[in-house]
Amino acid sequence: MTLLTHIQHPRYAQAFVDYLQTQGIAAHARPAAGATAILVDDPAQLPQAEQELTRFLAEPDHERYWQASWLVEDEQAASALSRFYRGPSVWNVVKTTGGVTWLIIVACVGVFLLTGEGYNKDARAPLMFFHSMDALLDSNQVWRWVSPAVLHFGWLHITFNLFAWWIFGGLVERVQSPMRLLGLFLALAVIGNLAQFLWSGNQFGGLSGVVYGLLGYLWIYPRVNPAAPFRLPKGMVGFMWAMIALGFLPFMPFANLAHLGGLLGGCALGGVLAWLDKDERA
After folding, report:
1. Active site includes 157?
2. Which of 12, 66, 77, 207 has the largest CB neighbor count within 10 A?
3. The pTM is what?
């Protein structure tokens, strides 16, 4: 291998390496003292790599580099999925799931069992959203702003929501921080619950408003801060909006405004937090 250069920010370094790979140049990023070393495998490809480096340094935020990361990550995801179906290690799944992700999973499962799969009205009553606007404004039962998010009705409801939470919430916790995920959970639960209450009252529950909010966050964040270490898979955004639209059909018994409110709230939080994170890095 031949050293090409050093790039200080690791995410920019990886984007450049991903782009080189899409151009047929075998390259790797390796940690170095205070920076990331870019290594070219074949010395014969060094002149081409140097030309690409000059162009990269002139416009490091160009879409071509982040698009290259999406392409490479899609290939890696397909490979990882193939390995998963060949037989994953349960212990590895447990180890790579963060504490906040587990906290919400355990809370949802616990509430699910204690409320008779969500159908015991007396058991679920303390977890429902406020029953009226007066109660919302006067009550000191602040947990009701959030608690409907951990209440589910039936096995299909909780299984789908927890799987989606494990994927998208787990991604935020791994690549950003547990506190970022916890803050997003609380904010998105409040936004989604309030939106659904204003639309149809307090007879609702589920984590899907938070899940849609996380999708919105993961969609907008890397568009404001291109150095973000994540991207939604191709087609996910279209699927997300299609499911939102489907939920408003008369025969679909979904908490539609919780979904839409969570999604829009997640988009707003993604934009604001990405801007703040980008400003801190600058």
Report:
1. no
2. 207
3. 0.69
